[in-house]
């Protein structure tokens, strides 16, 4: 273990060899020779052969020789400390390599280096609202944390084929899909996973609304309220999503355009009497009662009668809507495996994060 | 440098205390079994060669070359005189070291009259490996005799037509081949040949080795206070038993297209039989100075007293296993709780140079005795009471 640890340290030191060589060639040569010795030892260990050089002793003795004569009683504890430190260095290095590999693969597959808590990854490939999972910390539950770590690794590996596969939005459509514009079977399907409370969804909405995207694709969506430890990441998202789903199911027509999309228009584009964007107000100001009243008023504004609004309101609390939302969540979590919102599937690709237009 | 120049003005022989005055204060050298320190007169002799008459020897007509020839011849004589061999029966050749000398002999021996190879378990690899290779090459049996505790060899062994290669003094514990003269007589009586490895004998036991009638005695000048050099003292009838294949410059009187006339047939040039190519003239000349110095300083030296002190002290240390049966200038030991290599490195940190490991005796130490790596303290004529005191002080805390 000592020779492996020494190899690791020397390998890092060797990165600076070109600079060291400029100022002190003998030192650089010594580092290089030591690295070669260490590599020889590591290579033999890696191939399950005994390390037949004295490199391990050379390393240990280079430290212990300073104390053996003057402080002989320190030799044993110091020797143990060297062994323990070596083990730690090797474990930390292996762990670090695994983290790098896992993070790199995760970044490649999911666009975030931490699939359980994407918000904690500063390397995320696009702006998005993270779907962070609520998990115990390492100190709260070490064994569970390690288990999660490896299960995430497995998920990343399992997700590799998804990175290169052809994504077809038709494979992930929710029940009763509605479309931003009138459905045209000649146009390709596009699916967005969105959370009404997510600011990136709002910016994406404005972005594709300004682009030709909505004219060239049949754009539908799955409403996905992101969960948090205390419920939902955005406090009224779930309420809004139940209305969106109930409206879809009710099939009550007003002015011909899908009402759920009109509600999204209001949330993402309009502002209230206090000139506050509705999304911000829903997230920060409105209580559930206030939010529900707003939604009901909008339905009336869109041409629904009071009876129709009542039917929709009752439907939001129905088992059917709950089941449909659960089914949608299953599509997002287990089929698409989206880690961040919004996620778009169109033109054979899956894109997570802010929609940047065509 | 200034110190060397001052010492260089001393007498040719000097004395054993000041002739190592170039050593840094507090430095203790205890690896004389590998190579001894060179006293100032020896260094001066080498320097003098390089700075005043640096030239080739043999067949050189100019003054420097003639001086080289004369001094080299003197060194050959001094070696024979030191070991009390008659120039009528023996000659001296120079090589690289003891291993090289033994290989020169063993690899060129005519195998017809040899039926087996005999050596012992405590041999240095310089003996162990060439005998192994020789036996394997000629498909001869090789017998490895167990040495007695006092270093002697059981003479009841059958030495018929045997090539016997053994050391005179062990480099592990200074154990001597007590019955060396009887052994040589017995082997000769049974039609065999004896090559002695005297590497460890020439520095301290040259008197004791005197005129042992072996067929060849191989040793190393660098273990007798001279520069790095191999020394072979060879019976004059031995070259006839060789099939010479290691040939080159300096060995011939004449050469034709497909034949040559070797010089060694001329008694005056018999030493050339083992001296192919340019020789280390300066080192050979300095060996002559070393012989003078050794003779002048050996008898009055307290090396036996110092060795005895170290031996007794080490024997009394707890958890310390001393391999020696008796005090000799070569003392090997190990501490049951401390790695010997680490101990040697630790000693080095405080200025004490001591050897650790198996000292090229892997077979005996590792595979027969199953010892861990050892520490070896080998004293030389340069060592002083202060050296021993320093070693004892350094090891006091460790050997518990």
Shape of chain A: elongated
Task: Let me know the largest β-sheet of chain B.
Answer: 7 strands, mixed
- Specify the helix fraction band of chain A: 55-70%
Share in β-strands of chain B: 15-25%
Give the N-to-C terminal Cα separation of chain A.
54 Å
Q: How are the strands of the biggest sheet of chain B laid out side by side? A: 2-8-7-6-5-3-4
The beta-strand count of chain A equals: 8
Described by the principal axes of the CA atoms, the overall outline of chain B is globular
Largest interface: A-B, 14 and 16 residues
Order of helices and strands of chain A: HHHHHEHEHHEEEHHHHHHEEE
Structural class of chain A: alpha+beta
Q: Could you report the average pLDDT of chain A, rounded to the nearest whole number? A: 86
Summarize the structure.
The complex is a heterodimer of chains A (358) and B (400). Chain A has 358 residues and is of the alpha+beta class.
Describe this structure in words.
The complex is a heterodimer of chains A (358) and B (400). Chain A is of the alpha+beta class. Chain A is 56% helix and 8% strand. Chain A contains 14 helices and eight strands. In chain A, the strands form three sheets. Chain A has a four-stranded mixed β-sheet. The two termini of chain A are 54 Å apart. With 400 residues, chain B is α/β, with parallel strands linked by helices. Chain B is 34% helix and 17% strand. Chain B has helices spanning 2-7, 40-52, 63-82, 98-106, 125-138, 180-189, 206-209, 281-298, 303-315, 340-349, 362-368, 385-396, and strands spanning 28-30, 90-95, 116-120, 142-145, 162-167, 193-197, 216-220, 230-235, 252-255, 260-262, 320-322, 330-335, 352-357, 374-378. In chain B, the strands form three sheets. Chain B has a seven-stranded mixed β-sheet, with helices on both faces. In chain B, helix 5 (125-138) links the parallel strand 3 (116-120) and strand 4 (142-145). In chain B, helix 2 (40-52) packs antiparallel against helix 8 and helix 4 runs parallel beside helix 5 (125-138). Chain B is globular. The two termini of chain B are 42 Å apart. The interface between A and B is medium-sized, with 14 and 16 residues.
């Amino acid at each position: 273990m000592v020779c492996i640890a020494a190899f690791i340290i020397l390998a890092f030191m060797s990165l600076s060899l070109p600079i060291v060589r400029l100022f002190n060639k003998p030192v650089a040569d010594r580092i290089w020779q030591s690295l070669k010795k260490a590599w020889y030892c590591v290579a033999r260990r890696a191939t399950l052969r005994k390390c037949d050089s004295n490199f391990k002793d050379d390393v240990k003795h280079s430290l212990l020789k300073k104390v053996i004569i003057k402080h002989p009683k320190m030799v044993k504890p110091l020797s143990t400390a060297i062994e323990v430190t070596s083990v730690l260095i090797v474990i930390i290095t292996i762990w670090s390599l695994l983290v790098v590999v896992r993070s790199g693969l995760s970044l490649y597959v999911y666009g975030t280096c931490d699939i359980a808590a994407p918000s904690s990854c500063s390397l995320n490939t696009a702006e998005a609202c993270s779907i962070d999972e609520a998990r115990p910390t390492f100190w709260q539950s070490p064994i569970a944390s390690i288990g999660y770590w490896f299960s995430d690794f497995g998920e990343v590996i399992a997700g590799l084929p998804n990175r290169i596969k052809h994504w077809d939005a038709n494979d992930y459509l929710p029940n009763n899909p509605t479309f931003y514009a009138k459905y045209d079977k000649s146009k390709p399907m596009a699916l967005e996973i969105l959370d009404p409370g997510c600011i990136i969804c709002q910016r994406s909405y404005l972005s594709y609304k300004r682009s030709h995207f909505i004219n060239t694709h049949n754009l539908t969506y799955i409403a996905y309220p992101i969960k948090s430890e205390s419920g939902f990441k955005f406090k009224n998202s779930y309420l809004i999503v139940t209305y969106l789903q109930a409206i879809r199911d009710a099939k009550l027509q007003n002015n011909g355009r899908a009402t759920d999309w009109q509600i999204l228009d209001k949330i993402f584009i309009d502002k209230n009497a206090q000139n506050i964007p509705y999304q911000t107000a829903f997230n920060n100001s409105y209580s559930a009662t206030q939010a529900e009243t707003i939604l009901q008023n909008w339905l009336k504004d869109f041409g629904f009668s009071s009876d129709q609004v009542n039917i929709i309101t009752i439907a939001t609390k129905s088992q059917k809507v709950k089941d449909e939302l659960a089914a949608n969540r299953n599509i997002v979590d287990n089929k698409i495996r989206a880690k961040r919102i919004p996620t778009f599937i169109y033109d054979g690709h899956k894109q997570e994060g802010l929609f940047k237009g065509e | 440098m200034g110190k060397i120049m001052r010492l260089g003005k001393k007498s040719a022989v000097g004395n054993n205390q000041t002739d190592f005055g170039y050593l840094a204060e507090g430095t203790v050298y205890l690896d004389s079994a590998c190579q001894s320190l060179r006293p100032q007169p020896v260094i001066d002799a080498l320097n003098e060669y390089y700075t005043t008459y640096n030239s080739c020897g043999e067949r050189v007509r100019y003054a420097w070359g003639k001086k080289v020839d004369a001094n080299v011849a003197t060194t050959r004589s001094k070696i024979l005189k030191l070991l009390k061999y008659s120039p009528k029966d023996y000659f001296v050749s120079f090589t690289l070291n003891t291993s090289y000398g033994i290989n020169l002999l063993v690899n060129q021996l005519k195998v017809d009259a040899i039926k087996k190879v005999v050596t012992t378990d405590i041999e240095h690899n310089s003996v162990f490996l060439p005998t192994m290779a020789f036996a394997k090459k000629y498909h001869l049996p090789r017998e490895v005799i167990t040495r007695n505790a006092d270093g002697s060899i059981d003479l009841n062994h059958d030495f018929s037509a045997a090539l016997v290669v053994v050391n005179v003094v062990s480099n592990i514990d200074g154990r001597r081949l007590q019955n060396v003269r009887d052994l040589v007589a017995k082997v000769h009586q049974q039609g065999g040949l004896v090559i002695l490895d005297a590497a460890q004998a020439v520095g301290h036991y040259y008197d004791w080795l005197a005129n042992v009638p072996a067929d060849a005695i191989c040793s190393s000048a660098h273990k007798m206070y001279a520069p790095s050099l191999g020394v072979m003292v060879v019976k004059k009838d031995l070259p006839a038993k060789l099939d010479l294949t290691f040939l080159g410059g300096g060995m011939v009187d004449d050469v034709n297209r497909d034949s040559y006339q070797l010089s060694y047939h001329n008694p005056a040039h018999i030493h050339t039989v083992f001296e192919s190519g340019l020789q280390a003239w300066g080192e050979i000349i300095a060996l002559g100075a070393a012989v003078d110095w050794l003779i002048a300083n050996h008898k009055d030296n307290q090396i036996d007293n110092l060795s005895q002190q170290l031996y007794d002290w080490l024997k009394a240390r707890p958890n310390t296993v001393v391999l020696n049966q008796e005090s000799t200038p070569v003392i090997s030991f190990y501490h049951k709780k401390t790695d010997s290599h680490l101990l040697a490195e630790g000693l080095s940190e405080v200025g004490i140079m001591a050897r650790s490991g198996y000292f090229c005796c892997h077979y005996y130490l590792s595979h027969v005795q199953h010892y861990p790596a050892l520490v070896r303290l080998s004293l030389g004529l340069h060592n002083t009471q202060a050296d021993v005191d320093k070693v004892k002080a350094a090891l006091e805390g460790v050997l518990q």
